[in-house]
């Protein structure tokens, strides 16, 4: 009865509404914002069907006076312009419009006119234009409160303002990455704001030096300036910024050495990324003083010398990337056994010598190891779990004296290529699964003194002559099918000795090489022996000598380089330029240069127009360097060049064409992708290129209309890739005349209109991709039948409607069908089963309906991915799907399917990912017994089914040994948390929220040593929080999981101009126990869970004070203790939690002053309401004694402000964790317990 009374009281409290509706001015401003949207994602309907009080509108939060303080409309599919009227919301604190498709400029002047605004986030949109200096009418205001500005991942251009930041005295974090800003990096950030802590300007076009004044930013923790066009050295002053934790200057034009005394100052560094620059010299010994260092990237520089032994002192290192340098000496100088957290070690392409040290094999977490292209003479990989075949390319390791691969699981035949290791003295292949015969060629290993192939499955005769006849019979033991004179078992007929092929079982086991946790992967070994075959080709020397004219043109090219990465020294070593590195001359003896191949050489500077004087030059490949400036018209208009590849550089400006009367240009292949070209893509450029076959201009900033003149000039034109640009308008109908066109890619642009009818006349098309545009219309069945050669059709992320036509069944070569994220409807055509080559079918987020049984999936034996998420399919899951034995990912979530899972799902032996969430599937006990036999299953999401059933307690549910993520949420299942979950030792994320589970939280929970995300909220669990929860390994330590890939869950991530997938921290570490019946005090031991990102304990019956030890959770981003019975004061130590972005203690019995300063000044008053004894400015209740307030030093206030910097800057810059903190309010009507709810919605899909 006591509990019922409490529940009733809480219910009454939840019904209490604010007394003050929104003001008419705020309502008008919001409606003006809505009016400027060309696509509102349903927002207008939601707002208009709601009350007239705009404080109740979706995405809007108000304070007690009816003023809008938050506008949170992220990921709403909004299109249109950002209305200046938002600046009229005078109470606005936070504005979040991220992850939409807003365009036009950013009215920063108007938005800043509200002097109270603290956070502006418009990241991941299509905003463009320049970011102008703030007007004096704004900057002269007495105070600008802005702390966080996130404009990343847009299309802004022009010089970056410098004066604007001088007026922002509270600025903490600025993220302007992934734009096209130019000019110098400003230095005025911390001159105005002593609390400035985060600056990300990466992936832009900044030039010049790094400003020394950034070193005076005493609070700066994150500095990312990579992927720009900077030059010079790292200024000495920058090393005075001793608070730096993340320093990334990757892929700029920097040079110089790393000064030992300077490096020692940055003892807070966690990430140091200086890769792909031109640094020289050694790694200083002082690197060992960076005790917090986790990521060290110095790859692709010109550094040299031995590795310092002090590197072994950096015991937190997770990644070491030193590839493509000139490091030398023996690796044994470093004691790798102290690096117990090391997961990635890449030293490929250096000059290391000696044996690979045994201490590396003590790094039990190592998952990636690359040692290729060094001078190691011994390789010992014995006693691991390597699998797969021994690669043929192992013969390239010519210097090996020792090769030990024993006690692994290698299978297949001993490669004959081993005979190429002529210096080999020791070869041990024992205790594997090798079969076939012993190659006679091994007798050519004349220095071999130790040989062992025992305990395999070898057969046939042992070679009787040469070196192999000298070894004892113990070298061949455990191979009963072997025979020969040195063995007891003699051969009846040597000639008849069979050479076995793979058995069926062998073939079935030949898969991606993936080994158990805490073992090295075979991919590491494969990388070790994979060498560039072009290295061998470069040894060939031409018979002719180059002419002086050719030599002069090449030297002119060399003179235009600001960084040649040793090329000058290489060329000056000989007078015959035909023998120079990267240069090939013709074989007719005239000394004419026919090919220049200098890709991946670290070159920097301008492209010389003198290369156009090489009149016999046919192939020019300068890709993957750092060239800047424009592309000389002499190269585009060359009378000899047929292949021109300058992709992956920093080239910019508008493409220029040099008219040469009426002469035709022989260019056949042009690759200018992944640069910074701008301007319109003029059709005049292609008029004289009558031989053009392939053009790749993707990943640039071209705009205007797509040209259509390619095949007017060239009848052989076959490949056009214009994706990831800014093209607008309609798809040109003239492309339909390209009779030889095979590949047409123009995704991720601003195209609109329909697919022109004429396009379907391009009947040679094999790859058609227009994803992520604004196209509309239907797929015409009569026309699509013309594209019989299609292998890829990708139209996802548009506005197509209508059905999939029956004629799709005529596309017999179709391998990928991607129509997701449109508005298509109707039943699936039965003829889809005629597309027997299909590998991937993605139809998610549409309005398809009907029964799936219309399609006979059993004919699609090549199908690997089937994604039907968010449609309206009905009926049962068709049995024919279970015949798709190659399926690895199956997602049927959020449909209207019913019935039970069939035992035939066990046929899907390769299935790795299964989601059937939000259907009407029944019988969970039977389902789990069936699914447990899918041994490769890693991700399983079955929530929002099995309504009101009993949670199976059967200990016979003994499978799922590889399961890493399990979600059985929202089923209203009853019963206790089952014991069989304790056997899932690889489990990393467990979701059981939204059920009716009862009893206590089991003590065995801490046996799940990999578990880092636990959500058991919204159940009826009782008693105290168990001590076992305080002993969860992944929540106590800084260990990170490398197994759960967020890409599997369709999280919003950004693919940059170089198609790079970037993610800051993967999934957060979370403990969510909210909305249960837990009692007692919050354990003081909770301070041990130091790596927690989210702690939710709301809506329980917890009592006592908030423990001071919560202040130890320095990584916490979200803390919700609301709706309990907590008493006492708010601990002042909470202001030291520098990642805290969301905080809620509403509806308790707390008292005393609310801490001031830091992030506490940014939390809304709703975070504290329902505590009448609390006082402070934020709740409009003055404390009787100011002296009673917890004192905060200026240092503490600055530390507090860092919270917003980290939370909104580092973790949310790629759109992963930020979304988790701005979701609608769900759990138990809490004003905050929707935090991290987004991750559940994603996983439940």
Automatic annotation (TrEMBL):
<keyword id="KW-0325">Glycoprotein</keyword>
<feature type="transmembrane region" description="Helical">
    <location>
        <begin position="1201"/>
        <end position="1221"/>
    </location>
</feature>
<dbReference type="GO" id="GO:0005886">
    <property type="term" value="C:plasma membrane"/>
</dbReference>
<keyword id="KW-0433">Leucine-rich repeat</keyword>
<dbReference type="InterPro" id="IPR001611">
    <property type="entry name" value="Leu-rich_rpt"/>
</dbReference>
<feature type="domain" description="Leucine-rich repeat-containing N-terminal plant-type">
    <location>
        <begin position="24"/>
        <end position="63"/>
    </location>
</feature>
<feature type="domain" description="Disease resistance R13L4/SHOC-2-like LRR">
    <location>
        <begin position="859"/>
        <end position="1035"/>
    </location>
</feature>
<keyword id="KW-0732">Signal</keyword>
<dbReference type="InterPro" id="IPR032675">
    <property type="entry name" value="LRR_dom_sf"/>
</dbReference>
<feature type="domain" description="Leucine-rich repeat-containing N-terminal plant-type">
    <location>
        <begin position="549"/>
        <end position="585"/>
    </location>
</feature>
<dbReference type="InterPro" id="IPR003591">
    <property type="entry name" value="Leu-rich_rpt_typical-subtyp"/>
</dbReference>
<keyword id="KW-0675">Receptor</keyword>
<dbReference type="Pfam" id="PF23598">
    <property type="entry name" value="LRR_14"/>
</dbReference>
<keyword id="KW-1003">Cell membrane</keyword>
<dbReference type="Pfam" id="PF00560">
    <property type="entry name" value="LRR_1"/>
</dbReference>
<dbReference type="Pfam" id="PF08263">
    <property type="entry name" value="LRRNT_2"/>
</dbReference>
<keyword id="KW-0472">Membrane</keyword>
<feature type="signal peptide">
    <location>
        <begin position="1"/>
        <end position="19"/>
    </location>
</feature>
<keyword id="KW-0812">Transmembrane</keyword>
<comment type="similarity">
    <text>Belongs to the RLP family.</text>
</comment>
<protein>
    <recommendedName>
        <fullName>Leucine-rich repeat-containing N-terminal plant-type domain-containing protein</fullName>
    </recommendedName>
</protein>
<keyword id="KW-1133">Transmembrane helix</keyword>
<dbReference type="InterPro" id="IPR055414">
    <property type="entry name" value="LRR_R13L4/SHOC2-like"/>
</dbReference>
<keyword id="KW-0677">Repeat</keyword>
<dbReference type="InterPro" id="IPR013210">
    <property type="entry name" value="LRR_N_plant-typ"/>
</dbReference>
């Amino acid at each position: 009865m006591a509990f019922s009374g409490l529940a009733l009281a809480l219910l009454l409290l939840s019904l209490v509404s604010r007394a003050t509706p929104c003001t008419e001015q705020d309502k008008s401003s919001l409606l003006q914002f809505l009016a400027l949207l060309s696509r509102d994602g349903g927002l207008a309907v939601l707002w208009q069907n709601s009350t007239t009080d705009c404080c109740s509108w979706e995405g809007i939060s108000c304070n007690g006076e009816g003023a809008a303080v938050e506008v949170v409309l992220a990921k709403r599919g909004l299109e249109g312009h950002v209305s200046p009227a938002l600046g009229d919301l005078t109470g606005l604190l936070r504005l979040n419009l991220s992850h939409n498709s807003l365009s036009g400029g950013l009215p920063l002047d108007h938005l800043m006119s509200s002097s109270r605004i603290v956070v502006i986030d418009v990241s991941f949109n299509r905003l463009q234009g320049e970011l102008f200096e703030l007007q004096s009418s704004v900057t002269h205001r007495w105070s600008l409160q802005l702390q966080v500005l996130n404009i990343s991942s847009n299309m802004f251009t022009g010089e970056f303002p410098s004066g604007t930041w001088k007026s922002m005295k509270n600025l903490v974090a600025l993220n302007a990455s992934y734009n096209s800003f130019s000019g110098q990096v400003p230095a005025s950030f911390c001159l105005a704001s002593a609390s400035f802590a985060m600056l990300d300007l990466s992936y832009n076009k900044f030039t010049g030096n790094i400003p020394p004044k950034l070193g005076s930013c005493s609070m700066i923790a994150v500095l990312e300036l990579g992927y720009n066009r900077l030059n010079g050295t790292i200024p000495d002053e920058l090393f005075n910024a001793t608070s730096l934790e993340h320093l990334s200057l990757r892929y700029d034009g920097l040079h110089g050495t790393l000064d030992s005394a300077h490096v020692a100052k940055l003892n807070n560094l966690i990430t140091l990324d200086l890769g792909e620059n031109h640094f020289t010299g050694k790694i200083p010994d002082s690197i060992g003083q960076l005790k917090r260092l986790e990521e060290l990237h110095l790859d692709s520089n010109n550094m040299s010398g031995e590795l310092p032994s002090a590197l072994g002192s950096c015991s937190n290192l997770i990644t070491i990337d030193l590839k493509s340098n000139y490091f030398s000496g023996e690796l044994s100088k470093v004691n790798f056994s102290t690096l117990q957290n090391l997961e990635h070690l890449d030293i490929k392409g250096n000059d290391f010598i000696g044996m690979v040290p045994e201490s590396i094999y003590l790094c039990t977490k190592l998952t990636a190891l690359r040692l290729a292209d060094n001078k190691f003479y011994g390789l010992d990989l014995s006693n691991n779990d390597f699998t797969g075949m021994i690669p043929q390319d192992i013969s390239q390791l010519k210097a090996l004296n020792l090769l030990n691969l024993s006690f692994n699981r290698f299978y297949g035949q001993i490669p004959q290529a081993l005979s190429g290791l002529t210096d080999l003295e020791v070869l041990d292949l024992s205790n594997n699964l090798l079969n076939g015969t012993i190659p006679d060629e091994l007798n050519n290993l004349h220095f071999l003194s130790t040989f062992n192939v025992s305990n395999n499955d070898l057969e046939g005769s042992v070679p009787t002559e040469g070196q192999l006849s000298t070894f004892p019979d113990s070298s061949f033991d455990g191979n009963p099918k072997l025979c020969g004179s040195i063995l007891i078992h003699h051969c009846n007929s040597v000639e008849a000795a069979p050479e076995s092929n793979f058995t069926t079982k062998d073939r079935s086991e030949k898969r991606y090489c993936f080994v158990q946790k805490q073992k090295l992967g075979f991919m590491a070994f494969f990388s070790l022996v994979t060498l560039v075959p072009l290295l061998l080709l470069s040894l060939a020397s031409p018979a002719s000598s180059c002419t002086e004219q050719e030599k002069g043109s090449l030297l002119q090219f060399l003179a235009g380089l600001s960084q040649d990465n040793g090329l000058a020294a290489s060329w000056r070593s000989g007078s015959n330029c035909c023998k120079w590195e990267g240069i090939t001359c013709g074989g007719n003896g005239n000394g004419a240069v026919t090919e220049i191949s200098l890709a991946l050489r670290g070159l920097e500077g301008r492209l010389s127009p003198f290369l156009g004087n090489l009149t016999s030059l046919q192939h020019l490949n300068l890709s993957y360097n750092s060239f800047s400036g424009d592309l000389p018209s002499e190269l585009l208009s060359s009378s000899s060049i047929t292949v021109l590849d300058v992709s992956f550089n920093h080239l910019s400006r508008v493409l220029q064409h040099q008219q040469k009367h009426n002469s035709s240009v022989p260019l056949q292949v042009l690759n200018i992708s992944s640069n910074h070209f701008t301007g319109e893509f003029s059709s005049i450029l292609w008029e004289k290129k009558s031989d053009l076959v392939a053009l790749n201009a993707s990943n640039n900033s071209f705009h205007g209309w797509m040209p259509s003149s390619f095949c007017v000039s060239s009848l052989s034109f076959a490949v056009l890739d214009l994706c990831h640009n800014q093209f607008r308008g309609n798809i040109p109908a003239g492309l339909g005349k390209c009779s030889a066109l095979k590949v047409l890619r123009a995704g991720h642009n601003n195209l609109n209109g329909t697919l022109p009818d004429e396009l379907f006349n391009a009947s040679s098309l094999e790859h058609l991709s227009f994803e992520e545009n604004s196209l509309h219309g239907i797929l015409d069945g009569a026309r699509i039948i013309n594209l019989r050669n299609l292998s890829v059709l990708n139209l996802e992320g548009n506005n197509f409607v209508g059905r999939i036509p029956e004629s799709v069944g005529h596309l017999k070569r179709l391998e990928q069908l991607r129509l997701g994220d449109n508005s298509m409807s109707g039943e699936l055509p039965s003829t889809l089963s005629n597309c027997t080559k299909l590998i991937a079918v993605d139809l998610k987020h549409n309005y398809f309906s009907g029964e799936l049984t219309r399609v006979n999936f059993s004919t699609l034996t090549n199908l690997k991915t089937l994604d039907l998420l968010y449609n309206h399919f009905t009926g049962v899951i068709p049995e024919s799907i279970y015949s798709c034995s190659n399926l690895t990912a199956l997602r049927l979530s959020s449909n209207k399917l019913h019935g039970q899972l069939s035992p035939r799902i066990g046929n899907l032996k390769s299935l790795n990912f299964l989601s059937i969430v939000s259907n009407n599937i029944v019988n969970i006990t039977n389902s789990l017994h069936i699914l447990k036999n899918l041994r490769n299953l890693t991700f399983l999401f079955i929530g929002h089914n099995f309504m009101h059933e009993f949670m199976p307690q059967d200990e016979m549910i003994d499978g799922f040994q590889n399961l890493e993520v399990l979600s059985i949420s929202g089923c209203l299942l009853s019963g206790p948390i089952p014991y069989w979950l304790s056997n899932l030792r690889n489990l990393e994320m467990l979701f059981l929220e939204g059920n009716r589970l009862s009893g206590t939280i089991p003590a065995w929970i801490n046996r799940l040593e990999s578990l880092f995300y636990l959500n058991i909220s919204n159940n009826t669990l009782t008693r105290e929080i168990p001590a076992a929860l305080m002993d969860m390994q992944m929540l106590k330590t800084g260990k990170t999981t490398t197994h759960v890939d967020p890409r599997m869950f369709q999280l919003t991530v950004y693919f940059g101009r170089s198609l790079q997938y970037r993610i800051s921290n993967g999934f957060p570490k979370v403990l969510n126990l909210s909305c249960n019946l837990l009692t007692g005090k919050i354990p003081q031991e909770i301070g041990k869970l130091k790596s927690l990102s989210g702690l939710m304990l709301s809506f329980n019956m917890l009592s006592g004070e908030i423990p001071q030890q919560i202040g130890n959770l320095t990584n916490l981003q979200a803390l919700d203790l609301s709706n309990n019975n907590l008493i006492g004061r708010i601990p002042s130590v909470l202001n030291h939690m520098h990642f805290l972005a969301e905080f809620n203690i509403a509806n308790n019995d707390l008292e005393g002053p609310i801490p001031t300063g830091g992030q506490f000044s940014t939390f809304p008053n709703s975070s504290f309401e329902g505590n009448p004894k609390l006082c402070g400015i934020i709740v409009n209740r003055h404390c009787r004694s100011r002296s009673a307030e917890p004192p905060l030093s200026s240092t503490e206030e600055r530390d507090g402000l860092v919270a917003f910097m980290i939370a909104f800057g580092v973790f949310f810059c790629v759109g992963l964790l930020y979304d988790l903190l701005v979701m609608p309010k769900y759990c138990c009507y809490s004003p905050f317990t929707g935090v991290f709810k987004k991750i559940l919605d994603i996983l439940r899909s």
